[in-house]
Design brief:
The protein has 100 residues and is mainly alpha-helical. The protein has four helices and no strands. The two termini are 15 Å apart.
């Protein structure tokens, strides 16, 4: 499990912003950490699964989707900033995120 460095934080933020801009066909400049994925971007919860696959490959993460599902049920996120923060936790804790 990699430690969350400033470089990783910048990479995650960039990938999340670029991903949602492309998927939702908006400019990256229209997205902020407070942007609501469903209300503002007309996105859906399945987009995060696709995004998660990018991070699993990029950081060689070994995390089960059911673990993430359990975490999200207890800690739902709706904004870009929430997705970024949750991604940091997944990268840092992988399957032990369920214990947080």
């Amino acid at each position: 499990m990699p430690a969350i460095t400033e470089e990783i934080k910048k990479e995650v933020r960039s990938v999340v912003y670029d991903f949602f801009a492309e998927e939702c066909e908006v400019s990256v400049d229209e997205i902020t950490d407070n942007t609501n994925i469903i209300k503002d971007l007309e996105g859906d919860s399945l987009m995060y699964l696709e995004l998660l696959e990018i991070f699993k490959k990029k950081y060689q993460l070994k995390i089960e989707l059911k673990i993430i599902g359990k975490y999200v049920v207890k800690n739902p996120v709706a904004t870009i900033g929430g997705i970024i923060d949750m991604t940091y936790l997944i990268i840092e804790h992988e399957n032990s995120i369920a214990d947080l």
